[in-house]
Design goal:
By secondary structure, this protein is an alpha/beta fold. It has a single domain (3-175), classed as Rossmann fold. The protein has six helices and five strands, in the order βαβαβααβαβα. It has helices at residues 16-25, 61-70, 88-95, 98-102, 123-139, 161-175, and strands at residues 3-8, 31-36, 74-80, 110-117, 142-150. Strand 1 (3-8), helix 1 and strand 2 (31-36) form a beta-alpha-beta unit. Helix 1 (16-25) crosses helix 6 (161-175). The structure holds flavin mononucleotide. Flavin mononucleotide is lined by residues 10, 12, 15-17, 80-84, 117-120, 125, 153. Flavin mononucleotide (FMN) binds next to helix 1.
């Protein structure tokens, strides 16, 4: 059976991001592992430069998450947009991918998807986090498959019926 690893980066376990993720995962028939990034111990990068020569870093939960990522077929980032980017725990994780930026990439044919929710619908809130995700997926030797944004959450709590249909269709394509 194939495996999907989700990095869930919202501090709200029943918020807008979770709602979007649940709809997406309702079309997933594979094994699913979900990491709540707020529960993981991920030390921030200190820019020591060790990874320029060694593919190693601190010992913390980053390795456990990476081990699941590298044995997965599908990677999903599910996050709210915070200041055009990811919330701090997820940003800390992305900074810790520096060894994979500095060194050769792992072999792999994983597919990656970004699910994000944001209070507004300005193009900056979408473009910046999507660009960051593309870079991260590249460092993880993962093909960026696509993204979906639950926008304008400052003004609403649910997705419209047609949006739910679109999310499910994307999920079916992604997980196939
Ligand atoms: C600290 C903080 C920063 C935010 N920055 C942005 C932003 O830059 N752009 C945006 O559209 N929404 C922003 N928002 C709104 C959230 O992205 C939005 O409320 C999101 O849907 C929350 O998801 P959740 O229910 O999973 O917590 C911000 C919210 C917080 C708390």
């Amino acid at each position: 059976m194939k495996k999907a690893t989700v990095l869930f980066a919202s501090p709200n376990e029943n918020g807008k991001t979770k709602l979007l993720l649940d709809i997406f995962l309702s079309e997933c028939a594979h094994n699913i592992i979900i990491y709540n990034m707020y529960d993981e111990n991920i030390k921030p990068c200190i820019g020591c430069g060790r990874c320029e020569s060694l593919k190693s870093c601190f010992t913390d939960d980053t390795e456990k998450i990476l081990s699941d990522i590298f044995s997965s077929d599908f990677i999903i980032f599910a996050s709210p947009v915070y200041n055009y980017s990811f919330p701090s725990p997820m940003k800390a994780f992305l900074d810790r991918l520096q060894p994979y930026f500095m060194n050769e990439k792992m072999n792999g044919t994983r597919k990656g998807f970004l699910l994000a929710s944001c209070g507004r619908s300005g193009k900056f809130s979408i473009e910046v986090i999507e660009k960051q995700s593309k870079i991260a997926f590249s460092e993880l030797s993962t093909e960026f498959f696509g993204s979906y944004f639950f926008t304008d959450t400052d003004k609403r709590t649910t997705l419209h019926k047609d949006e739910v249909g679109k999310v499910k269709k994307l999920a079916l394509q992604f997980f196939s």
